[in-house]
Amino acid sequence: MNELLYLRTPLTDTQRERIAQIVKSGGLIVVPTDTIYGIGANALDPAAVDRLRAAKGRGRQMPPPVVVDSLESALPLVASSSPILEKLAKDFWPGALSIIVRDNPEAKLDLGDLKGTVALRVPQDDELLELLRITGPLALTSANTTASEPSISCFQAQKYFGSKVSAYVDGGLSPCGIASTMVDITDDHPRIVREGAIPVERVRKSLSEIGVALH
Which residues does the UniProt record annotate as the domain YrdC-like (predicted)? Predict the structure, then answer.
């Protein structure tokens, strides 16, 4: 049976622990974020990530991004830090910027056909950050099936996934309704992969302050 938790008031510690247990046992969860609702799984559990992709109707060619609670939590997943990563994280994390980096082979991420990369983000949502401090990294992608509209409410996500998800967290309507902006910094020529909640010009200005051009 699914567990439906409401965020009309903050989650209790007991509720957070229950969600963390579900994640650590390989279950899927739906949570509100600072952009749109997300469906998530333990990023370090390949079988759970497989279930996540299957629920969305996606293959390995479309790996999910990973959310963490801080830059410090992201660094073990990264091959090496860089001035570009540190600058973007300083200016936009927590926030709606997903940063694609070279992954750390020792982290043994198996999110799909990554080709040695991973998209990382620290969301600007206090409830989700509290949860991430307990669960660790989550593979978290928009709570919708392929070719469907992203969920801006828990009810909409339930219609998509039903019993495939073990826990739904209801935080009301999404405050933004737009996916994160995504920037690829896997080489010395950062480029925008997807424009979303953060305008491209803000990213361009941030990088220009350290003498880096956005392509």
Answer: 13-198
19 touches 171 (CB < 8 A): no
In the chain, the number of structural domains is: 1
Catalogue the E-assigned strands of 7-73: 29-31, 38-42, 66-67
- Whether residue 148 lies inside any domain: the answer is yes
Q: Which residues contact 45 (CB under 8 A, 6 or more apart)?
A: 26
CA-wise closest residue to 182 among 197, 172, 170: 197
**Domain enclosing residue 73, as ranges:** 3-208
**Structural domain contains residue 131:** yes
Q: Is the pLDDT of residue 6 over 70?
A: no
- What whole-number distance in Å separates Cα of residue 62 and Cα of residue 60? 5
Q: What angle do CA 188, 190, 196 make, to 5 degrees?
A: 165
Q: Where are the alpha helices (DSSP H) in 30-92?
A: 46-56, 71-74, 83-92
Q: At 23, is the secondary structure helix, strand, or coil?
A: helix
* pLDDT tens readout for residues 121-161: 999 999 999 999 999 999 999 999 988 999 999 999 999 99
Is residue 123 domain-resident?
A: yes
DSSP state of 1: -
Antiparallel, parallel or unpaired: β 3-6 and 167-170: parallel
